[in-house]
Amino acid sequence: VSNLTGALASGEELGSAEYWVRHVREAVRFSDGLGALHAAGATVFVEVGPGGALSAMGAETLPDAAFVPVLRADRAEERSFVEGVARAWTLGVAVDWAQVFEGTGASRVDLPTYAFQRQRYWLEVTPGVKGDLGSVGLLPTEHPLLGAAMDLPDSDGVVFTGRLSLRTHPWLADHVVAGAVLLPGTAFVELAVRAGDQVGCDGVEELTLQAPLVLAEQGGVRLRLTVGEPDGTGRRALNVYSRRESAASEEAWTCHATGVLTAGGARSATDLAVWPPAGAAVVETAGLYDAPADAGYGYGPVFQGVRAAWRRGDEVFAEVALDEEQQEEAARFGVHPALLDAALHGLRLGGFFSDDRARLPFAWRGVTLHAVGAAALRVRLAPAGADAVSVTVADGAGQPVATVDALVTRVIDPEQLKLAAAAAAARGAHGDELFRVEWTALRREVLDEAGASGTVGTYEDLGALTEAAPDLVVCRFSTPATAPGGTAEAARTAVRDAAALVREWLADERFAGSRLVLVTRGAVAAGAGESVGDLAAAAVWGLLRSAQTENPGRFVLVDTDGEDVSSAALASVLAASDEPQLAVRGGEVRVPRVVSAVPSGREKAPSWGGAEGRGTVLVTGATGALGGLVARHLVVEHGVRELLLVSRRGVAAEGAEA
């Protein structure tokens, strides 16, 4: 088939010099050529070349045909060749296997004598499809992440439902950040776009991610996506929630994203037909997925989609494609989340950020979808403000697929994600298990690598730091042993002072790259037998934990015992550790970790009563209905004899005496 005419070529035509002159000068009729072959009965196309670019474009042109590349740029030649030939064979192509393996030393072996083939009898249900939804009053969405929708009778709002797990959506297991399997931020965009389609909104004005959605190896999570009724301009509020499927009905839902959908606000987009872009220099991508692993990313094959990249000034261009196994799934999405996620990987090639710390999408603005079902994309990334980029993606022919006016990213806290992953895994195995915080010694290798260096100065306040801000600013936060108004007033004063310091720190751009270390004494119980000695300082810790959550990497909380050996240990470890919270006791540096509250081996917990359980049990809210039930249960079932019952109204509450 001729690439010049897109039709079957004759020997006379191919023997003409004029034909080959036109072949060099005129357009390649690739799509027409595939159509001619398909019309002639071809259903399997084997790409013989250095990569799989033609197969990706062919899959868009002929979705009913199969395309098999025998070489891939990112894979070993021998393995890629054998896999390609094997796939062609499974599609019905005759293969001379003796010729394939000639000279390799391969030989035939006998199969096991037992019937090793396995047959499943359970029906495999495609994610997002759950039988006759109309019979239970729901509307089908025909989307892999959303199962159904229902209109609200008292408003013009809509609720969408879905379920996610690594069993039903195994491709999500390839999106690992800091050891946690996360639903990618691009999946939230896909959910918002699909919900907008259902309610007649053609754009996502904004979408802000509030909390990561961690998926456990076992079990799944329920999704709820709510779309409010339109305001006077056609805008609708959007919220995305999840809750583990084994949760009790009273367990709260977690809000992961909030946003606004718009109607009639779709933006036009420029195409990327000229490719590679004029004036762009090639960027090496061979080690792109090695460096992110060191920074906390752990992308599997499905998310390793970058095939080539270029740079022009402060713009980055890239070619991305879905893993072969996901290409058929692309048609069921607006833009497959793994493909759109890969489109953002070029951010690590363009020097958009000042450091290599792991980042995740935080806020999307002005998202418009122009075409659906692409399996390969052309991408343009360009700066759009502080920590923000604009994103333009097109299909293999350069026609617009989606545009994002601005995507804002944020640095992630790897430790928080690791703890979230551990908690999700524990919930999957023991849904109702309790957890507690345990202070453990910091790893020895961290302490060995630590070493304080540089210049140390003492300043009266932040305003006195007139020169370039240092890497670390240490503030010793102490409260008087006795204060007018007692402990309560001391706590109020301490929290007010800490809040003022935090606001001043965040407002001063000189400290944008620095960390503020607040040192307290007796604010936390960081070991066996310890108690909180300074309640006002404990309140400061509560405030600063919230500030840490909202501003990752900007604050460090440290609690010491005041000993000289502890001060020396602290000075060295701060230079090497990124831990947000530390406690130093007798020179030993400790960090908080979430652990199971159930003893190892899941032994029976000690009795509340008897010799081991003597003591007083505190019940708060004790004069309410639930408090009374708890108190009675402790006495009757656990033999507790000493109770301290407290509540807001105390003995003035109705029924308190009883």
Q: Give the low-pLDDT segments.
A: 445-452
- Count of helix runs: 15
Structural class by secondary-structure content: alpha+beta
Our estimate of the beta-strand percent is 15-25%
Mean pLDDT: 84
Query: Rg to the nearest angstrom?
Result: 31 Å
Helix share bin: 10-25%
Largest sheet: 14 strands, antiparallel
Spatial strand arrangement across the major sheet? 3-4-5-9-10-11-8-15-18-17-16-14-13-12
End-to-end gap: 94 Å
Rough shape?
elongated
Give the tally of β-strands. Answer: 26
Task: Please describe what this structure looks like.
The protein is α+β, with helices and mostly antiparallel strands and 658 residues long. Helices cover 24% and strands 24% of the residues. The chain contains 15 helices and 26 strands. The strands form five sheets. A 14-stranded antiparallel beta sheet has the order 3-4-5-9-10-11-8-15-18-17-16-14-13-12. α7 packs across α9. The protein is elongated. 30% of the residues are buried. About 1% of the residues have low confidence.
